[in-house]
Amino acid sequence: MYCNRKFQMIICLSILAAMIFFPVRIFAQENKEIVEHQTGFYYTVQKGDTLWDISDRFFDSSWLWPDLWSENRQISNPHWIYPGERIRIFHQKGAQSFVGKTVSRRRALEKEPQKEPLYYYYSPINKIGFIRKDPVVPSGVIFKVKDDKEMISTGDLVFIRSKGGMPPLTAGSKYSVYRTAKPIIDQKTEALIGTQHYLTGMVEITKMDPRFAVARVVQSYRTMEVGNLLMPYKRRSPKIELIQSKKGLNGQLIISEEQANIIGDNDIAFIDKGSKDDVKLGQQYSIYYQENQRLDTETKEDVLLTQIVYGTLLCFIPNRPHQRFS
Question: Among 95, 88, 92, 202, which Cα is nearest to 156's?
Answer without folding.
Answer: 202
